[in-house]
């Protein structure tokens, strides 16, 4: 159970929190009207949007974990991108990073539960053993 606690904690610290910071970095990005260009499983990072930068069409990847529920190719949306790196964009409604923060909180809660359960199981086992011995 302690291994599960470490795994859940690692998910929160190594994946979810950095992803939330990454999404928040787009707050000051440039807004653009975009069209979903390539749809796939957006959760694993297989979606792209197309928008214009200085009159030129750019295809930008949406980050893994993007929630584009119900969106199909050709769906219009507003995105934000960094002017120096327009090949990555974030759907404007997801710039706050609330999805990864929720994942981090749930993962931390699961880690805490697993840790408490592991300690409780260890203490109960030691008590049982001590009672059997004497």
Structure notes:
With 134 residues, the chain is α+β, with helices and mostly antiparallel strands. Helix content is 44%, strand content 26%. It contains two helices and five strands. It has a five-stranded antiparallel sheet, with no helix packed on it. Strand 4 and strand 5 form a beta hairpin. The longest helix is centred in the last third of the chain and has 36 residues, at 98-133. It is elongated. It starts with a helix and ends with a helix. 23% of the residues are buried.
N-to-C series of helices and strands? HEEEEEH
Largest beta sheet: strand ordering: 3-2-1-4-5
Instruction: Summarize the biggest pleated sheet.
Output: 5 strands, antiparallel
State the separation between the terminal residues, measured CA to CA.
28 Å
Structural class: alpha+beta
Give a count of the beta strands, DSSP E runs of length 2 or more: 5
Assign a percent range to the helix content: 40-55%
| Alpha plus pi helix count | 2
- The parts where pLDDT drops under 50 for at least 5 residues are none
Give average pLDDT, whole number.
86
Tell me the β content.
Answer: 25-35%
Give the overall shape, derived from the CA principal axes.
Answer: elongated
Radius of gyration: 22 Å
């Amino acid at each position: 159970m302690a291994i599960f606690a470490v795994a859940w904690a690692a998910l929160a610290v190594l994946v979810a929190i950095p992803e939330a910071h990454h999404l928040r970095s787009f707050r000051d990005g440039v807004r653009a009207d975009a069209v979903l260009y390539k749809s796939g499983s957006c959760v694993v990072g297989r979606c792209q949007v197309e928008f214009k930068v200085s009159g030129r069409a750019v295809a930008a990847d949406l980050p893994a974990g993007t929630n584009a529920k119900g969106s199909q190719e050709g769906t219009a949306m507003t995105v934000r991108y960094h002017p120096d790196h327009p090949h990555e964009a974030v759907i404007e409604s997801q710039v706050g990073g609330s999805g990864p923060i929720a994942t981090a909180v749930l993962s931390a809660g699961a880690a805490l539960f697993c840790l408490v359960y592991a300690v409780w199981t260890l203490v109960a086992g030691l008590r049982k053993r001590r009672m059997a011995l004497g």
